[in-house]
Structure of Dihydropyrimidine dehydrogenase:
Amino acid sequence: MAKQPMLKFVTVGRDMPEKREPDTRNKDFDEIYAEYARVKAEEQASRCSQCGVPYCQSHCPLHNNIPDWLRMTATGRLEEAYAISQATNTFPEICGRICPQDRLCEGNCVIEGSGHGTVTIGAVEKYITDTAWEKGWVKPITPAVEREQSVAIIGAGPGGLAAADVLRREGVQVTVYDRYDRGGGLLTYGIPGFKLEKDVVMRRIKQLELSGVEFVLNCNVGEDISFDAIRGKHDAVMIATGVYKTRDLQGPGAGSDGIVRAIDYLTASNRVNFGDTVEEFENGELNAKGKKVVVIGGGDTAMDCVRTAIRQGATSVKCLYRRDRANMPGSQREVQNAEEEGVEFVWLAAPKGFAGDPVTGVMVQKMRLGAPDASGRQSPEVIDGADYVEEADIVIKALGFEPEDIPTLWNTPELEVTRWGTIKAAFTTGATSLDGVFAVGDIVRGASLVVWAIKDGRDSAEAILTYLDGARAVAAE
């Protein structure tokens, strides 16, 4: 009888890739986790129970066929594992690095419920695709048949890039327009290198370029080219701009110098790590070196900011969040990493105002959690008389992002938006109020996860193919 290659969770413990020591990793922007060796990846993949109803798969937005590629990995069939992984996920090596697996696939792993510790799905996913790149299994896209029809994608973030991949595989001519000088969107400029090294993103951009995708960079739609002109040049348009407008702080002194937006701060840091010269970094405006840093917010962007500030050489880094640890929206894994690296979290604390201009401190209100609301979440309440001042040389706003006013910026009032300012688009297809115009990702959902943007881009690309087929059939009549 053949030896059972799976279900080894009873005898083999959960083992994540080794993390570099905090006092070493907090001085550079390299990824903090080492790679699995082949034997370790096979061992960890073999812990999968191959359960009849794989909750890991059903709780993945892309519904990745996780049990099958774990089995392929455990039995040494890595090229097949990569093919299965790539079939549902355009960028598995990126999701393996930055997805909050503790809230998605791993958080719903069946064997964790029995006390054996979840399968390390994200780390194995990363290993599979990194190996595929290393072995040359990842190739440029070569469509069987080229089509004359063309699609414009506005935004080179994960949603737009995922759509470009799907469309090129069907022979569609694809042009991607983006405001930045490099593709990737937040993958490139919003997420720090210690979570996602930039060569991982750049090699996917290069793969798409070699596949025939045209990138028009440094291009602001509404300024450098009109939205109408783009519609006139292409058979269909996808809007995948993301959300970049920062939620503002309120209170006295909120406009003081030294209070900066998270997106500006992270973009400057990433540019410097590319080797670019960034004036705002050079003059200290977006550089934490030698400064007391206060970051306001509790999501993953706030975690990126505090960990970046540590690496830039801040004298102290504190994160203020108005709820407690259990109720923060960011990944608990990221909080742990930040604490290990020297970040101090100040829970149940909210800014009331700011001292000094340039800023010298944050006026903090201490909070407590009140009665649960209808959803069961406890709302923070102010504790009277418990205010104090937290010293700060730089304050980073990481309160989340909102959509820009696209219809006004692009002079397209007929493009319908929701009451939140997001583009109104059909569920699954991304079809908007304009014929042949689709929208995906955060500009539809509001600020969300990269994996959801990838799913939206893939789904909407399929809908665009159906739309193009319909247009071609009409033209042939």
User: Anything to note?
Assistant: Residues 450-476 form the longest helix (27 residues). The longest strand covers residues 361-372. Residues 245 and 404 are 6 Å apart (CA to CA).
